[in-house]
Amino acid sequence: MACAKAVFGRLCLYGVPGSGKTALGRHLAERLQRPLLVKRASSLLDKFVGET
User: Fold this and answer.
1) CB neighbourhood size of 15 (10 A)
2) Are 32 and 19 in contact (CB under 8 A)?
């Protein structure tokens, strides 16, 4: 009997600018042959509450 193990996960890297977060993410995505989705906090959050 053969079993396949599927692993799904997410990784959120945060820290000071220039510390290599994106480079690490790209390297991991390449090694794992997975797509990389890069999001910036500024594209997810508005400066003011209720802003559209």
Assistant:
1) 8
2) no
Q: Pull the structure tokens for residue 9.
A: 């996960």
Which residue type does 16 have? V
Cβ pair 28, 22 in contact under 8 A: no
User: If DSSP codes are grouped into helix, strand and coil, which group holds residue 46?
Assistant: coil
Give the model confidence (pLDDT) of 29-41 as tens digits: 999 898 888 887 7
Helix (H) / strand (E) element for 42: namely: helix 41-44
CA distance 35 to 29: 6
Question: Has this prediction a pTM greater than 0.70?
Answer: no
* pLDDT digits 0-9 by tens, 5-51: 666 778 888 889 899 999 999 999 999 898 888 887 777 776 676 66
